From TrEMBL:
<dbReference type="InterPro" id="IPR002641">
    <property type="entry name" value="PNPLA_dom"/>
</dbReference>
<dbReference type="GO" id="GO:0016042">
    <property type="term" value="P:lipid catabolic process"/>
</dbReference>
<keyword id="KW-0472">Membrane</keyword>
<keyword id="KW-0378">Hydrolase</keyword>
<dbReference type="InterPro" id="IPR050301">
    <property type="entry name" value="NTE"/>
</dbReference>
<feature type="transmembrane region" description="Helical">
    <location>
        <begin position="42"/>
        <end position="64"/>
    </location>
</feature>
<dbReference type="GO" id="GO:0046486">
    <property type="term" value="P:glycerolipid metabolic process"/>
</dbReference>
<comment type="similarity">
    <text>Belongs to the PLPL family.</text>
</comment>
<keyword id="KW-0442">Lipid degradation</keyword>
<protein>
    <recommendedName>
        <fullName>PNPLA domain-containing protein</fullName>
    </recommendedName>
</protein>
<keyword id="KW-0443">Lipid metabolism</keyword>
<keyword id="KW-0812">Transmembrane</keyword>
<dbReference type="InterPro" id="IPR016035">
    <property type="entry name" value="Acyl_Trfase/lysoPLipase"/>
</dbReference>
<keyword id="KW-1133">Transmembrane helix</keyword>
<dbReference type="GO" id="GO:0052689">
    <property type="term" value="F:carboxylic ester hydrolase activity"/>
</dbReference>
<feature type="domain" description="PNPLA">
    <location>
        <begin position="1"/>
        <end position="96"/>
    </location>
</feature>
<dbReference type="GO" id="GO:0016298">
    <property type="term" value="F:lipase activity"/>
</dbReference>
C-alpha cells in the first residue's frame, strides 16, 4: 500500500474507500468521514490505523496526508484521531451527502452492538415473533420484554447524557456507543457465543483464520 492516499486509490480502481475517525479532546466534535471527496490527500494506512484506535487498547494517532509529494499531519478538525464508531458507526448521512448513497448494507459485528441488537424484521428463516390475526406466536412475550428492557436502558442512558452526568472512561463519553444508529437498510450480524466474547482481544489463530476467509 505504501504512501498511497484516498484520491489515488479512487483514480486507479474506481472504488470508493470510506473510513470514519473521531478527533480526540473535543467532546462535541463531529466524526469525520474520509474518502476521495472529503479528504483525498489522507494516506490510506494512516486512516485505517486511526479508525482502529480504541481507548484503553490502542492510543490515538495523527492522521497523515500527502500533498505535493510531502507527507505531513492532516489539517482537519483534530490533531489526534481515534475510532469513528464512538460517534457515528454507520455514517449514513455523510455517505448520502458526499456520495448520494440511498441504501446501506451493514455487516454489524461490533460486540457491544450484537449483544443488545433487536432485529424487528427478523432474520432469514427466523421471522419475528409477532401477533398474527388472533393468534399469539410462540416467543412473542419474551421478544416484547427484551425490546422493552433495551429501550428502557437507552432511555435512562440518554437522560444521563443530556444532563452531562455520564462519567468519562479513558477520557471518553461512551454513551454515544449505545445511543447511535447501528443498522442499515439491510443488516447482517453474527450469533456470538460467550466463548467468542472471552477471546475478543486475542489475535486470530491459523485455524480461526480459515473460517473467516484468510
Amino acid at each position: 500500500m505504501g504512501w498511497k492516499h484516498l484520491g489515488v486509490a479512487f483514480e486507479r480502481t474506481g472504488r470508493v474507500l470510506n473510513v470514519t475517525c473521531t478527533p480526540l479532546g473535543r467532546k462535541y466534535a463531529a466524526p469525520k468521514l474520509l474518502n476521495h471527496v472529503t479528504a483525498p490527500d489522507v494516506i490510506i494506512w494512516s486512516a485505517v490505523l486511526a479508525s482502529a484506535c480504541l481507548p484503553g487498547v490502542l492510543p490515538p494517532m495523527v492522521l497523515l496526508q500527502k500533498t505535493g509529494g510531502v507527507v505531513q499531519a492532516y489539517t482537519g478538525s483534530g490533531v489526534l484521531w481515534r475510532d469513528g464508531s464512538f460517534r457515528n458507526d454507520i455514517p449514513s448521512h455523510e455517505l448520502r451527502a458526499s456520495l448520494n448513497v440511498q441504501f446501506t448494507v451493514v455487516s454489524q459485528v461490533n460486540p457491544h452492538v450484537t449483544l443488545f441488537f433487536y432485529d424487528r424484521d427478523g432474520a432469514i428463516g427466523q421471522p419475528p415473533a409477532r401477533r398474527l390475526s388472533s393468534v399469539w406466536r410462540g416467543g412473542f412475550v419474551l421478544s416484547a420484554l427484551e425490546h422493552f428492557l433495551k429501550l428502557d436502558i437507552r432511555k435512562w442512558l440518554r437522560l444521563l447524557r443530556d444532563l452531562d452526568l455520564v462519567p468519562l472512561l479513558f477520557g471518553q463519553d461512551w454513551s454515544y456507543v449505545w445511543l447511535q444508529k447501528f443498522d442499515g437498510s439491510v443488516t447482517v450480524r453474527p450469533k456470538a457465543t460467550v466463548g467468542e466474547y472471552l477471546r475478543l482481544l486475542r489475535d486470530p489463530t491459523r485455524w480461526a483464520g480459515c473460517w473467516i476467509g484468510w
